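Protein in question reproduced for absentees:

***
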Amino acid sequence: MVIGNIERLSDATKLSAHVTRILGQNPGLMTLQGTNSYLLQPPSNPHAPLILIDTSSPHTANQYVDLLLVHLHHLGLESGTRETHFESNVAKASLSNLPEDQVDQVKASLVAERAENGRADELMLVEYGPGSKWTATYHVTANGSTNSSERKLPNIEHIILTHRHLDHVGALPTLLRALKSHGCPPPKLWKFPSPDEAELCASERDRPTSDAEIWQSLPAGTYQSFSPLQPFHPIIPGLMISIIDPVYRHLLKHDKDGKPKWNEVPEIARVSVRCLRTPGHTQDSVSLVMLEGEKGVFTGDTVLGQGTTTFLDLASYMTSLRTLLALKPNVLYPAHGPHIPNAKESRAHLEEYITHRQIREDQIVNILQKLSARTTSDGNPNNLTSILIDLKRAIHAQAEADNAAKAPLMVDRRKAIPMPDFEDEKASLERAEKEGTRPQAAVPMSVLCRLLYKSEDERLIFAASKSVGAHLVKLEKEDKARRGRARWADLAGKEVGELVEVETWEYVGPPEQAEAEAKETKEKKD
């Protein structure tokens, strides 16, 4: 099913023998259906340890953790490691067939047998299925510590963070507290250290996603720290993070240098990922290559399942895309959107990402070139005010067309709104052109993003400005664009505000073209 053009995803979906997707419960414009959190587990045993990749946002942490714990409970029920009790209808019916004087003896015998071997006689009087009850075996001591003689949930041994953004790390504190309260041993936390940590800490906007701020949010005693001063275990490119079903641990042998021979353990009893650095979206972004099963690649936000992503460094991002393409992945597991299920579609998806970036750069250059000209293609004077008013009319017309296409009883259908005259906006833009300091060939960043995305949605424009800015920086390094500052109208959503200082960009073309234009200008002056 789709909502608009967004495919609806289930809250928890088993995508392969080793991989289960848990949806982050944080849908939105930038997160699509929500953050995809992945559980990796050897298929040999539902109670085998797990690897968790990413979490969810702070504001949806409770919903996400509840969903994750429900799934862990289901795994525990499948594994048969739970309390023996006699309250189900099947158990009561079975016990009713026994003489009354033997009931207590049979119960005690089953409890003793269950205590010795938690998976013995799974089909006897032990309650299974969706209606089964869960009995906690943990308790909190006087000093606040949690003890558990018998744990019901499978271990999450490793939590891997693909990058620093809050929709991936924000639910981590809540999750760690919940795991501790359920008697689970503390997991190891893995993350690539942010190369731009100093800049993040100095930025008021980005400081909450710095490593230091994430560390401070972690509850003490809920994770295995790398060192007293370093909670995260640092990800090193090429590092392999692995788990093995304890039942099969005896099959793991080591060579003379002490290195484990993972390939000698059946794939059904193990799961491991190889860490690969893929910067661009952020400087600390990593991807994870699974070494078992379908050998899929977990791309984080470097590649999404639907739409495109934002990035900070275009050159690094393009290198990361080509690196992922060179891996020839059989499956792509993105952090947002549906997974890409086969090698052919994965290759096409990555090639489309690479091609899209060049198309976007061509669009940026085309807009800058058109607005730097003194006249339009039909000979009329180039007027930025008229261009923006025409854009407002087109956006309004499209919104009305979308509204008219909705069924009469849809809750978000509204009454039609006549086309406004936009006279106030036009007057404000004309005043900005008259009183501002914008050079005729310079285009404000806010205008460029609106023309590119045909939108005035402030959240979209803010996010788009990052990737558009990265393209412009690349063009600036190639001497094809020039950055500037000017006083011009403050565009906020649909509103045209007062004069403020804004960033502008001007197309100057290749060096030889710029030299020719400078020579032509000089000749005209002479």
In short: The CA atoms of residues 241 and 273 lie 5 Å apart. Residues 89-133 form one domain.
